[in-house]
Structure formats: structure tokens, C-alpha cells
Specification:
The protein has a single domain (3-168), classed as Glycogen Phosphorylase B (Rossmann fold, 3-Layer(aba) Sandwich), CATH 3.40.50. It is built from six helices and seven strands, in the order H-E-H-E-E-H-E-H-E-H-E-H-E. The chain has helices at 3-6, 17-27, 74-97, 110-119, 138-145, 157-162; strands spanning 9-14, 36-43, 60-64, 101-105, 123-127, 151-154, 167-168. The chain has a seven-stranded parallel β-sheet. The termini are far apart.
């Protein structure tokens, strides 16, 4: 067995904006000599994650995800179809890569990835974004209620008190 295969593989969900900055900061503590990293990023017609530089060396894989549904009831149906497509892609990706864990910070792409990972018995770690001070995001709430994450971290002590299964160990930034 080669030394590269002995290092654990972490599948990191990469997303743009503040999530990207927080993910980069989180990965700064990872030693690339001790872990391997692969990335799954959300692909949608208005999403440019494919162009983001990766914080650590690793392959990138697109996953379809839910679009916005704010004020457009018909979008909820479309989003269900996107969720199904994203789940199939996530299942195939996780089955092929066989990561030791999936790590996501606040993004909706985590939902199909975590669902597939749970079916394949892969550990999932979710970190709620720093911007969530009073309550969990929609994604965080869904992952929390469905118990899709083995570990769920929040970046504010108040959230850890409101959601007993969450852990507060500090903030990423």
C-alpha cells in the first residue's frame, strides 16, 4: 500500500462568499502531509465555485444543488428535482472516492452530500457559518433535525445552548 493511500481523505464542500473564506481558514490547520483533500462544489447556473482556488491541493467535483426559492412557490418543486439529482451525484462521488469524512461549512450543497455519506457510513462534520448568531440557517436546521452530521459545530455559544447537539469550540475567523 502506498503512503498516499494511508492518509485519511476529507471531502470538503467548497462554496463561495463568506463560506469560502471560513472554509479556507478552517483548512489552514490541516497538514497536507497528514491528510488528503478532495472538493465538492455546488454547481448552478449562477454559481462560480469552479473558478475558486482550492485551499489545499485536491481534485474538484461538481454537485448540483438547490437554487433559491424565495417568493417563488414553483421553485420548491424544481428544488426537489435538483435535490434528487444532487443526491445521486453525491452518492456516486462518495462511493467512488471513499472519503473518511465529509466536511461542510454552512452551504446547501451539504444536504445531498451528507445524506449520501450517511447511507455509505461516512462521517459528516458540519460547521454553521459565523453569520448565524441567533438561529441556525435553513441548511443547518435541516442537517440538525435530520441528524445528518456526526459532529455539528456552531461559532456562537448562544447557539450551542439553544441546540444541545451542537458544539461550540470557538470561531473560525
Amino acid at each position: 500500500m502506498n503512503a498516499d493511500a494511508e492518509r485519511p481523505l476529507i471531502l470538503v464542500v467548497l462554496s463561495g462568499g463568506g463560506w469560502y473564506r471560513e472554509t479556507r481558514r478552517l483548512l489552514e490547520v490541516c497538514d497536507p502531509r497528514r491528510v488528503r483533500v478532495a472538493y465538492a462544489y455546488g454547481t448552478h447556473r449562477h454559481h462560480g465555485c469552479a473558478e475558486l482556488p482550492t485551499p489545499l491541493p485536491g481534485e474538484c467535483h461538481p454537485i448540483h444543488y438547490l437554487g433559491r426559492a424565495h417568493g417563488q412557490p414553483w421553485r420548491y418543486l424544481v428544488n426537489l428535482l435538483w435535490l434528487g439529482r444532487g443526491f445521486v451525484e453525491a452518492y456516486q462521488l462518495i462511493r467512488r472516492l471513499r472519503p473518511d469524512a465529509v466536511l461542510a461549512l454552512g452551504t446547501a450543497v451539504a444536504v445531498p452530500l451528507f445524506g449520501a455519506a450517511r447511507l455509505l457510513r461516512v462521517r459528516c462534520v458540519f460547521v454553521e457559518t459565523l453569520t448565524r448568531v441567533r438561529r441556525l440557517s435553513r441548511t443547518g436546521h435541516l442537517i440538525y433535525r435530520l441528524r445528518l452530521a456526526d459532529r455539528f459545530y456552531v461559532q456562537w455559544p448562544k447557539l450551542a445552548k439553544l441546540y444541545p447537539a451542537c458544539r461550540f469550540v470557538g470561531s473560525v475567523l
